[in-house]
């Protein structure tokens, strides 16, 4: 496997812009790291998860579905240049596998796959997290992984597309194994995962009362930041925009924390109360999606906990659920 310096990685990504629409972590003037094109800011590969929705290259906040003009419809077409999305974490890559499945099930969502088809994804992991922290190794769920040993990035391909990319990378040092880095990754604590699993079971067993959700909802200010950053939140609304003789239909991210999220044209709103919406935000990912898709749809990326001004991100709420409802169980052991 090739091992490249950070400078070589950056030069390599720039060399790929002739064939790919490369989106990678860039630094904004205030230091925020987001996914962006390489001419939008300096590359900022080390630093861990980006402060933007990592699945947005395939599911952007605002996306035109079609344009209608004088009896003819122009549907959105597949992107001309394949996307190369760089800098996802292992958790983000896991989230991407979920939304791939979501957008392909039953009805295949062309607007999503116009971008996702032919794309390639590179995860960045190892000793290059925020403040030098270790980022879990994905070991798959992507085409190529840059595993940092603290100084250099080892290129680990998982798919044919990943192998082709690695082949195009400059010659660097050769590394035969990342066993030591893998051992470091395997030793990372998984307390949050255990709490998530336990809270999921409690929700599936219907052991969390409505009063709890009312209490949590009291703290929500409906800023929607949790949904807007979450890599597995897929809700959107649709609206039409008239521009002269042309009507354009767009979809726009929605948030289940907003009062109008499910409001119907009649005025009836099945989620009109805040505690119902707050319950849904958590229950949907931990229980409903587990029933529907066979998996929890939270990858524990940590964004909602970091951004929530009220301290009710999913890790915080699941810890609270387990603390309050996971101890005593009539005639049975602790959940
Ligand atoms: S940690 Fe929060 S933002 Fe991240 S996947 Fe889970 S619910 Fe979404
Ligand atoms: S980030 Fe926190 S306060 Fe804002 S909508 Fe989400 S749960 Fe509510």
Task: Describe it.
Helix content is 34%, strand content 21%. By secondary structure, it is of the alpha+beta class. It folds into 2 domains: 2-188, no CATH class; 192-325, no CATH class. It has an 8-stranded mixed beta sheet. A hairpin with a 5-residue loop joins strand 2 (21-27) and strand 3 (33-37). Helix 6 (191-204) crosses helix 9 (274-293). The longest helix has 20 residues, at 274-293. The site of one iron/sulfur cluster has 15 residues, from helix 10. The site of one iron/sulfur cluster has 13 residues, from helix 8.
TL;DR of this structure?
The chain is α+β, with helices and mostly antiparallel strands and 335 residues long.
Oligomeric status: single chain
What average pLDDT do the residues reach?
94
Order of helices and strands: EHEEEEEHHEEEHEHHHHEEHHH
The number of distinct β-strands equals 12
Bound molecules: iron/sulfur cluster
